User: What shape does this take?
Amino acid sequence: MKKEALFIVNPISGGKSKLKFLKHLNSFKFKNLKPTILMWNSSEEWKEISEKIINSNYDIYVAVGGDGTVNLVARNLINTNKILGIVPFGSGNGLSRHLGISMNPIKALNRLDSNFETLTIDSGTVNNYNFFCTAGFGFDAVVANAFAQLKSRGLFGYVKTTIQLLGRYVPPTYKIESKDFACQKQYYIITVANANQFGNNVKIAPKASVNDNLLDLVAVRHSSLTNLILVALKLLSGNILKSKKVKFKQIEHLTISSEKPFYFHLDGEPMKEIKHAEIKILPHSLIVAI
Assistant: This one.
């Protein structure tokens, strides 16, 4: 008997058209899955889709999009026996890359239609909002906010936005507290990672594991533009933790606060400014097809 699969397709993720993929999906001769396809054209329609995910009982729920789409779908599957599938179609696809899912949407679809394995992974929360890949505070959150407003998405747009903001951003002073440490400094980037990367294999947390019951804190101290560029080069080479400008801790619970409001993002999606963030790990809370 074929498994019932609900495909939730984000029509705009990553700035990539899904028309070709949808044609393939509609004509694909499934061996093991029986597909139902859902799309939305505005944020107002998402509530109805979310309710359908919560109240239905498909064998697998497949997010077709980037990390933001994965987040939207996965938050409805937390602490249930429902399985998340991913067909990567975003700008960075950080969680998919960490899990070893093919970046070729057709190959990812073929894999889901075969006898896929599952992995139960951790997730995190910031002020009770879920994230599955990374949560960011500081420069990367400012970039995420600016990037979300671009008409043209994709890696080029992200790099261009980053370069434009690099020399202009001045971070506030953050107070970071956990059960075994506390610090108060100007941090340029503060990332709390479940997976090892932002996306595009840019590994902000090379030691991160999605099922170790821990989140990885990577905080980059504010410095001269030259030093920040050197840190960026270590980031691109996967060696960011070797920088003296970087603080690294593995944590279960953490708070970040500042007198000035600061942006944050969840899996690349910008959120409203806040002055206090409480971050927690949700161990083994999501079942993912890999």
Q: What stands out?
A: The longest helix spans residues 155-166. The CA atoms of residues 177 and 255 lie 5 Å apart.
